[in-house]
């Protein structure tokens, strides 16, 4: 029997703001960061996980993870199934959310680290570990509280059982062809026109059939940039736009109306991620332009309502915002029930590495479908990971290494540690 | 000119779980806690504020407040108006919410401390300071983003101007008669039947016309306790019930149906505070029993939707959950627009002390109304405050001391400091 014998938490920050990588209408100068956690065991592999932030406050996020250490120390690594339920059910910690913000993201980080550990011990990539679970086992991973008016445990079981017959065939397809991706790399708001044009052309040359542009700061700029990008990619490549929560409801409707001539495929985060009714109003007014959101949606209860209200065409789950793999399974099941495609949010630090597993599990064992589904891809910081994503021909290749692809190289933990790692000491 | 020259943050915990004070269906053993902040100035009074938690994680909440120190140090104390806007607008910190959880409560704590400081410097209690502001000044305190589909700045101005003529008369009434209260003291779930009966009778003898009972853990227990309480208080005293988020939607409807014979005045927190559509469904099914929520509602965007969806009959703002006084002004204005009475959540550590100022400001300068309005009162921990609430004859008396009534006695900061204060060292 192996136990968790030490928990390391590191405040890592990458100075991405120096080149305006990741800049958008709400986030002009992010320093992509990770509050990174390692579950050390006394026998066999360790487990790795993290919460993603964009700089200031990453120390608070790390403190949130450290506060969970007493729940982890000494635990049997083959008995981590109850961890998520125990953490989200802790009545005192719950007050700090409930199920939102720093404490919920901290729970997500350690739950994901426990899944990384479980997959390594099983010698399988996480997507495969999950896809091989029996439907009864999968529904037990979900916290069913607050869901029953939209999805019952029985309905979820039926969804999973319906997907069982085709599992092997879809797994083979996935291993052969990968999973479709789209790229955000051309579209950061801080990039000049020529860089947008060049990167948009490059994206098409690289095999992507969808790109995304950041919008929402200045309408004239957006018109000019969308024209440039549309000319660069031609009429058949999908162009999504992303406002990063910049607008009120009426403003979103007016702005999208003005950009309609460039045939936007979806409008992402048009307003507050908490505004279910606002998204529903925007969707009614902007159709047929699709409405997408999710990267800042705090938990399954808000996703439930976005689906109940018919507020979204595209559900963008995030691997490091909600309560880890367990809550994302609930979200995948909700999306399958309502027939809404899941197109995960990625980028940042390691989000591509994580979400690919969730999307591939969904394809093999939940929705069984690729229609309308793409995983975001941003070409940042992958070199720092031990098992980085492989995107070729506009598709994510199925990971084969055991685990959740969450591990950073050990020297990265030293180099980018904030504020005392060499990358930051040089800065001062 | 005075400046902020030091910021102290203290992790304070009170061992309330020893006597099951504050116990309910979701929170069986809270240790009422405060992440407490003092803004020290180089001339004149200091400012005091806090976030309220129920124990574990209060260290994370304190870390959240400490992370805001750089935004506070050196600031001119007469120029704190922009503080709220600057903090909620900080793009990197915003990622940790946005506007929810630990980081948002931290912002609320320092914004409230800044208001405490401003009111002390003005030599007036906060409710009076706010009530004397010009309507144009009040609307400038609000972050209008995401609100315009429900309430515009112009509509808010009209609400405030409509209330102007009666301000002096209502202020005199408030000073003479106080503001109505209700008491939760009889109803904690951990209390035995005899204690419930005795405290319910005592509440009526003390002049309260409304009490509240915790429910939701066991239906038979709830029936028995409500029968005892109804017999004790008679048919004319209002009895609210509070499930503390324990139920799914259908479960809430069935439970309330069974308790209907005891004439519950409102059902509070029947389900997740994030579930706008769920509350709306419960309200439709449970009428005429009122639906109340708010103590865990993360921000003005969720309150906006609860009002837009017709999901609540009673809005229970909390002084230490959202982004401080500024965001609560937005919430009071939204409630006034939709004609929904505000009955603030209180209890905990110092929440009674804070919310009385907001409710009194509302009465004098916003809604101008007391109909259906009561402030929660719980008789806990007031002795630790320098300017504790005074509740007599079932009514809060208007505070007269300068400030926001947020200051704890200095010896309390030493005695209850966690984990090294004497109250906790004895525990070990």
UniProtKB/TrEMBL annotation, chains A, B:
Residues 193-289 form the Mandelate racemase/muconate lactonizing enzyme C-terminal domain. SUPFAM superfamilies: Enolase C-terminal domain-like, Enolase N-terminal domain-like. It is an enzyme of class 4 (lyase). Keywords: Lyase, Magnesium, Metal-binding. Its cofactor is Mg(2+). Its EC number is 4.2.1.68. Pfam families: MR_MLE_C (PF13378), MR_MLE_N (PF02746). InterPro entries: Enolase-like_C_sf (IPR036849), Enolase-like_N (IPR029017), Enolase_C-like (IPR029065), L-fuconate_dehydratase (IPR034610), Mandelate_racemase_C (IPR013342), Mandelate_racemase_N_dom (IPR013341), RHMD-like (IPR046945). One of its GO terms (molecular function) is L-fuconate dehydratase activity. SMART domains: MR_MLE. It catalyses: L-fuconate = 2-dehydro-3-deoxy-L-fuconate + H2O. It comes from the Bacteria. GO terms for biological process: carbohydrate catabolic process. This is L-fuconate dehydratase. It comes from Planosporangium mesophilum. The lineage of its organism: Bacteria, Bacillati, Actinomycetota, Actinomycetes, Micromonosporales.
């Amino acid at each position: 029997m192996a136990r968790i014998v030490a928990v390391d938490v590191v405040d890592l920050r990458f100075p991405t703001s120096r080149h305006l990588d990741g800049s958008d209408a709400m986030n002009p100068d992010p320093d992509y960061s990770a509050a990174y956690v390692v579950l050390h065991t006394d026998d066999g592999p360790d487990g790795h996980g993290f919460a993603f932030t964009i700089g200031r406050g990453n120390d608070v996020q790390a403190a949130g993870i450290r506060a969970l250490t007493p729940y982890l120390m000494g635990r049997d690594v083959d008995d981590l199934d109850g961890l998520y339920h125990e953490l989200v059910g802790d009545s005192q910690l719950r007050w700090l959310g409930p199920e939102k913000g720093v404490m919920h993201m901290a729970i997500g980080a350690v739950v994901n680290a426990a899944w990384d550990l479980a997959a390594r011990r099983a010698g399988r990539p996480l997507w495969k570990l999950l896809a091989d679970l029996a439907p009864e086992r999968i529904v037990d991973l979900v916290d069913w509280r607050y869901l029953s008016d939209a999805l019952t445990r029985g309905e979820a079981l039926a969804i999973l059982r319906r997907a069982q017959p085709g599992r092997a065939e879809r797994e083979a397809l996935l291993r052969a062809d990968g999973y479709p991706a789209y790229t955000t790399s051309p579209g950061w708001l801080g990039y000049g026109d020529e860089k947008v044009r060049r990167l948009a052309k490059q994206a098409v040359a690289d095999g992507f059939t969808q790109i995304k542009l950041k919008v929402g700061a200045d309408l004239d700029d957006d018109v000019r940039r969308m024209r440039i990008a549309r000319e660069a990619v031609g009429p058949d490549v999908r162009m999504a736009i992303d406002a990063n929560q910049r607008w009120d409801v009426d403003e979103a409707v007016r702005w999208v109306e003005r950009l309609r001539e460039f045939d936007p495929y979806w409008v992402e985060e048009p307003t507050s991620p908490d505004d279910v009714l606002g998204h529903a109003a925007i969707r009614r007014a902007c159709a047929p332009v699709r409405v997408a959101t999710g990267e800042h949606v705090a938990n399954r209860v808000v996703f439930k309502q976005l689906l109940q209200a018919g507020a979204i065409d595209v559900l963008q789950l995030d691997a490091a915002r909600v309560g880890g793999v367990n809550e994302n399974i609930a979200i995948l099941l909700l999306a399958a029930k309502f027939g809404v495609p899941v197109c995960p949010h990625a980028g940042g630090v390691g989000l591509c590495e994580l979400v690919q597993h969730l999307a591939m599990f969904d394809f093999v064992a939940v929705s069984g479908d690729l229609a309308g589904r793409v995983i975001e891809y941003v070409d940042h910081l992958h070199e720092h990971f031990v098992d980085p994503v492989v995107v070729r021909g506009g598709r994510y290749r199925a990971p084969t290494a055991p685990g959740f692809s969450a591990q950073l190289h050990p020297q990265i933990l030293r180099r980018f540690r904030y504020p005392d790692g060499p990358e930051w000491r040089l800065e001062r």
